[in-house]
Amino acid sequence: MHALIPALQIHGLAKAFDGFLAVNGLDLVVPAGQIYALLGPNGAGKTTTLRMVTGLARPDAGDISVFGVDALADPIAAKRLIAWLPDEPLLYDKLTPIEYLAFIAGLWNVPAADAEPRAEALLKRLTLWNKRDSRCEGFSRGMKQKLALAGALIHEPRLLILDEPLTGLDAAAARSVKDILLEQVAAGGTVILTTHILEVAERIAQRIGIIRAGKMVAEGTMAELSVGRAEGTTLEQLFLELAQEDVPA
Fold this sequence. Notes:
Blueprint lengths: L7 E10 L2 E11 L4 E5 L6 H8 L7 E6 L2 E2 L4 H5 L2 E4 L11 H11 L4 H14 L15 H13 L5 E5 L7 H16 L3 E5 L3 H7 L2 E6 L2 E6 L1 H4 L9 H8 L7
Parallel strand pairs: 3-8, 3-9, 6-7, 7-8
Antiparallel strand pairs: 1-2, 1-4, 4-5, 9-10
């Protein structure tokens, strides 16, 4: 019965900024144990939606449920289940990776006996172990992105939400991140991501949602989205067809 509870369920979600309706009555169900790609052109409402899910913005209308927890009525309980990695992660420049992960683990009340081996494993996996005692202020964007991902994973969240997680990463680092996301799902976790790299979404996501002007215009597996279209239709072709309407930036 527990496995049937969606990782995320949104109904009638709406958010306006200065008269502009960024999210317009959005409905979405993300099954547990999958990678879900939320796609759309710039300004379509992806990041606004995810910020509301994570409690960083309050919706004007609608409902949000995370593993059955009402995220609006009990936001703290919902946040305990989530890790959020924005496209511009905030790190503390004067901390080293080891110090940063210890700090983040402490915020989540992860015992040091658990946090320390997790931190070591994550830093090694993300090829940051040799920089473990260097201050973050000297890191490249890609290195900061990888460390922020390690911080998001340190408390072993049930739902990992990532906004453009591959930004600034070279090919090897991007491959490591994709492998980690697949491992998260294999271990029973759920991942929701936005990306403009459609080949990545097509390759690793079990389900895909395409939004435009704050509304869902298509949702399903690649097979479901391709029904009625030519054999071999790519996600890029589907996206260009479904998201071609101009959307305010």
